[in-house]
Amino acid sequence: MRRAGRVVREVLELVRSHVKPGATTLDLERVAEKRIAELGARPAFKGYHGFPCVLCTSVNSEVVHGIPSPKRVLKEGDIVSVDCGAIIDGFFGDAAITVPVGERIHPDTARLLRVTEASLQSAIAAVKPGATLGDIGAAVQGVVEAEGFSVVRDFVGHGIGSHMHEDPQVPNFGEAGRGMKLRPGMVIAIEPMVNAGKPDVRVLKDGWTAVTDDGSMSAHFEHTVAVTATGATVLTE
Ligand code: MG
Ligand code: MG
């Protein structure tokens, strides 16, 4: 899983370097697809329940599961969430970043990105044997809501291993001390999805793309995290 995680990280960093005004989300897909193959991995998303691509690319008010398209041209001030999964020897890695397009991103949008990433780090810091899923959700929610943003409820993180989505579900909200206890050897994908406005989302007619109901910006960061004997190790770092 560490090897799969390294592939995902390398692909995401390469894609990040290709995010610029004028690039299309399909350009990012092409870069990722080529690199995944070069690294001897298989893409985890392509064909998953019929999803057509190796990346999810979700721009601005798109929350998750956006489909790369030659028609989606990135412009100055946009943000794009890039989510990638890879398989090595039957084991999965899954991670996401949200990247600003160009240099002139709105300060509120920049803050949304910072807070969402900070909420993921706060959740990772809570991971250790004996901690609970509620501790993780509460950590994300605390950071996000203190900044006046909202946590998406309709999508959650997940266990991951020889399948991309395994039990348990890992919500980005909850109550400290509640829920399943973490044990060494468990691996989970923690993935806060944070809206600048209200938490409500809806899915577009393409059957995949989730967008904020109020049209507000949304950010998404994700890591695959293993519970160790003493704490956590991030497999997609
Ligand atoms: Mg993901
Ligand atoms: Mg995931």
Please specify the SSE layout and strand pairing.
Blueprint: H1 2-18, H2 25-38, E1 42-43, E2 55-59, E3 62-64, E4 79-88, E5 91-100, H3 107-125, H4 133-146, E6 150-151, E7 157-159, E8 166-170, E9 187-190, E10 193-195, E11 201-203, E12 210-212, E13 218-220, E14 223-227, E15 232-234
Antiparallel strand pairs: 1-4, 2-4, 3-12, 4-5, 6-10, 7-8, 7-9, 9-14, 10-13, 11-12, 14-15
Helix pairs in contact: 1-2, 3-4
The chain binds magnesium ion (MG) (2 copies).
One magnesium ion binds near residues 158, 189 and 191.
CATH superfamily: Creatinase/methionine aminopeptidase superfamily
Overall pLDDT? 98
Helix content: 25-40%
Kindly report how far apart the N and C termini lie.
12 Å
Question: What is the domain tally?
Answer: 1
- CATH class membership: Alpha Beta
What is the overall silhouette?
A: globular
Strand coverage percent: 25-35%
Q: Kindly report the spatial arrangement of strands forming the biggest sheet.
A: 8-7-9-14-15
Structural class: alpha+beta
Short recap of the structure:
The chain has one domain: Creatine Amidinohydrolase (Alpha-Beta Complex), CATH 3.90.230.10. The chain is 27% helix and 27% strand. The chain is built from four helices and 15 strands.
Detailed description of the structure:
The chain is of the alpha+beta class. It has one domain: Creatinase/methionine aminopeptidase superfamily (Creatine Amidinohydrolase, Alpha-Beta Complex). It contains 4 helices and 15 strands. It has helices spanning 2-18, 25-38, 107-125, 133-146, and strands at residues 42-43, 55-59, 62-64, 79-88, 91-100, 150-151, 157-159, 166-170, 187-190, 193-195, 201-203, 210-212, 218-220, 223-227, 232-234. It has a 5-stranded antiparallel β-sheet with strand order 8-7-9-14-15. Strands 1, 2, 4 and 5 form a 4-stranded antiparallel β-sheet that branches. A hairpin with a 4-residue loop joins strand 14 and strand 15 (232-234). Helix 1 (2-18) packs antiparallel against helix 2 (25-38) and helix 3 (107-125) runs antiparallel to helix 4 (133-146). The longest helix has 19 residues, at 107-125. The radius of gyration is 17 Å and the shape is globular. The relative contact order is 0.18. The model has no long low-confidence stretch (mean pLDDT 98). The structure holds magnesium ion (2 copies). The site of one magnesium ion has 5 residues, from loops.
